[in-house]
Specification:
It is a multi-pass membrane protein. It holds the Pfam family 7tm_6. It comes from Tetragonisca angustula. Its main location: membrane. It is found in: Cell membrane. The chain is mainly α and 403 residues long. It has one domain (9-402). The chain is built from 10 helices and no strands. The longest helix is centred in the middle third of the chain and has 56 residues, at 233-288. The termini are far apart. The relative contact order is 0.11.
Length: 403
């Protein structure tokens, strides 16, 4: 177990988002109370947003442009709410994942080639976190800017909120307008952070696991590199067997961790895959076909860009997990273990190598509800579905305008 504390931009951002949404690891009673407050605030924000969107659809039914905008918002609220509820229900397993990552991945005690790989992994994670946080904050900011832009030059009685509300109060007048505007913006920000927190953490952990498999491959490949220089091959075989057992334990630990990751995240991944194409389709409609203000159109421009970045990076990390876990088999097979003497340790090495290769043939992966493994092919399939749905909506809207 590693106890040294390590941190960088991606790790600090991940820890902050987990604390903000109420699914972080706690170490004392004070942190437990703050965690409960954060979770209550997260749930309250999502329930409030669901109420706003559902009531707005009910009162605006028949106005397709407005309903499309509200449905997009409804899906964007429902998805992170479902994910955070799954993680809360499976909080014991989720905390085990957090503890394992903190103790075994995020530490500064890497050496030589492992340090180089860890540095490369860290740069990739930092780049992803900065890009993801920038895109989601830009998209959220336009939700607040749009009503301010539309309200400019109008009377106070004509002011609109970021999201339409149906209450029997003068919502456009002071102080009701300012209070409701602040409540909506705070709820919107919390929902955005919830949307980012679970997916951001999963992507970062995926990348770290991918690089952990690369480190394991390097260790296995270098077990036998000096075999020709050894004069006492029997003693060297004993040392190789000791080092191989350490690699096997590391491999077993990574496989077990991937299984835990799959058990916790399989339903959130399924929900994201199911909703992604529909959400992207509606966003594309709002960009290209809907008659909406420029600021509203920019909301969906940045949402589409952010969603596209997310699905590509996430499927890339899942694809890398499949590839790197499979390459352990090739790294094991390509070693010079066949030239070792047939001592007791030599026989055990051959037996363990065969078992390790058989275990590596079945790759570690994350699946969508157990239906199919997620890889880069998943992103192309989802984008293809998005274009199909968008073409269908465009043709339907064109026929409606012609009639």
């Amino acid at each position: 177990m590693q106890t040294a504390v390590y941190s960088d931009i991606s790790i600090r951002a991940s820890r902050f988002l987990l604390k903000l949404t109420g699914i972080s690891l706690v170490t004392n009673n004070a942190e437990e109370r703050l965690k409960r407050v954060a979770m209550a605030y997260t749930i309250g924000s999502h329930v409030f947003a669901l109420y706003l969107n559902v009531s707005d659809i009910y009162h605006s039914w028949g106005d397709f442009n407005h309903c499309a905008f509200v449905i997009s918002s409804l899906l964007s609220v429902s998805l992170p709410f479902f994910k955070i509820m799954v993680l809360y229900i499976l909080r014991t397993e989720y905390e085990e994942i957090i503890v394992y990552v903190e103790q075994n991945f995020w530490h500064p005690k890497y050496k030589d080639n492992d340090r180089m790989l860890f540095t490369e992994c860290r740069k990739l994670c930092n780049l992803w976190v900065v890009a993801a946080f920038t895109m989601i904050q830009t998209s959220l900011s336009f939700y607040s800017v749009t009503p301010l832009y539309i309200n400019y030059g109008k009377n106070k009685s004509e002011r609109i909120l970021p999201f339409q509300m149906w209450l029997d109060v003068p919502m456009s007048m002071t102080p009701y307008y300012e209070i409701l505007f602040t409540i909506q913006v705070l709820a919107l920000e919390q929902i955005g952070m919830t949307y980012l927190s679970s997916d951001n953490y999963l992507c970062i952990v995926n990348v770290h696991v991918m690089y952990q498999f690369r480190m394991l491959q390097y260790r296995i490949s270098n077990l036998w590199k000096a075999i020709d220089e050894q004069k006492d091959k029997i003693d060297y075989t004993e040392k190789c067997y000791t080092a191989l057992k350490e690699c096997i334990r590391r491999h077993q630990s990574l496989i077990k961790f991937c299984d835990k990751l799959e058990n916790v995240y399989t339903l959130p991944i399924l929900a994201h895959v199911v909703i992604f194409s529909l959400l992207m389709c509606i966003d594309a409609y709002e960009i290209f076909l809907a008659d909406v203000p420029t600021t509203t159109r920019l909301i969906f421009v940045f949402t589409v860009i952010g969603s596209f970045m997310h699905i590509v990076f996430f499927t890339y990390s899942c694809h890398g997990l499949i590839e790197e876990s499979t390459k352990v088999c090739f790294a094991t097979y390509s070693g010079w273990w066949t030239t070792l003497p047939m001592t007791e340790a030599g026989k055990m090495i051959r037996k363990d190598v065969n078992i390790m290769m058989m275990k590596s043939i079945r790759p570690c992966c994350l699946s969508a509800g157990g239906f199919f493994p997620v890889s880069l092919e998943t992103s192309t399939a989802l984008l293809s579905s998005t274009f199909s749905y968008f073409t269908l909506i465009r043709e339907s809207s064109t026929k409606s305008e012609g009639n």
